[in-house]
Amino acid sequence: MRHAPVLLLIVLFLAGCFQTHTVIFLNADGSGTVEETVLLASYAVNMIAGFGSTDSTQAFSLIDEDKLMARADSLGEGVTFSGVEELTENGFEGYVATYAFTDINQIRLTDNSDALRLGDDDGENEQVGGMNGLGLDGVTFAYEPGVLEIHIPREDEPETDIHPDSLAAETEKIRQQMQEQGGLIRGFLDNARMSASIVFPGTITETNASYVDSTTVTLVDILFGTMLDLMEENPELAARLQLAHSESQRQAVLAEMGELADFRYEANSDVVVRFE
User: Fold this and answer.
1) Parallel, antiparallel or unpaired: strands 193-199 and 18-26
2) Which of 68, 118, 138, 265 has the fewest Cβ atoms within 10 Å of its own Cβ atom?
3) What are the pLDDT tens digits along the chain (276 aa)?
4) What element of type H or E holds 49?
């Protein structure tokens, strides 16, 4: 497999030309599968291929099976790598990797930033994305037939009011950023997306989850273009989210953002789902 220069890859991923989707399919006995989809804009794939190895006999690929097999270990005890398939859709291309598990109680949904860092990486680079950046790293589960508890660990700082001067300064910073660079940022980020959801083996009958659709609970589904809309249309709300110190402050802002299209983010730290 041809590898691309790390610097180029960092630039591309900071540009936001990626989409990642994680879906847990739960069986009634507590076993199931995890499907992780990683997509990169086709123009970025072509750029990477062009800047990659000079050995034209080696085809460039986004798939690194060694890394995918190592990912199984990070998802929990008893998780195995089942396979991977290439995927091309809507101007993006990449893959769908499938992992099997025997007990969801052993699953720990962790950050998958390595999927967004291709090529040879010596580990010195900063994270460029993933669940950690969305506050969803380390999600754990407790299951008994018909009931799944989902725990989303979040660090909470002491309740401290946001100083009006700090809020005003951050609001102005965001406003200026969008005025001066909004067009460029949109060119990169509008179609970037991250999502994570759980599909149950029966109809959901009771839950405190914020986003439910028959058999599916969505923990996060964010189109980054929606965040840019917020920064343009309501920079003060975006500033409040940026400056939030405590979980209660974050939840208050997220509640206001809940009506935004293409923005789903589970604010509850503990979610209980009952199904039949």
Assistant:
1) parallel
2) 138
3) 444 444 444 444 444 578 889 999 999 999 999 999 988 887 777 776 766 544 555 666 778 888 899 999 999 999 999 999 999 988 888 899 999 999 999 999 987 766 666 555 444 444 444 454 455 678 999 999 999 999 998 766 666 788 999 999 999 999 999 999 888 778 777 778 889 999 999 999 999 999 999 999 999 998 888 888 888 999 999 899 888 877 778 778 877 776 777 788 888 889 999 999
4) helix 42-51
Strand partners, 254: none
Question: Which one-letter amino acid corresponds to residue 27?
Answer: N
Q: What is the torsional sign of CA 218, 224, 230, 231?
A: positive
Range list of H helices, 15-131: 42-51, 65-75
- Distance (Å, whole) CA 196 – CA 218: 6
Single-letter amino acid code for the residue at 178: M
Cα–Cα dist 268/253, whole Å: 13
SS3 97: strand
Closest CA to 153 of 26, 266, 35: 266
3-state SS, residue 205: strand
Q: Of 111, 122, 135, 114, whose CA–CA distance to 266 is shortest?
A: 135
Quote the pTM value: 0.80
CB 57 within 8 A of CB 119: no
**Which residues have C-beta within 8 Å of that of residue 115, sequence separation ≥ 6?**
20, 36, 38, 67, 71, 130
- Element (DSSP H or E) covering residue 44: helix 42-51
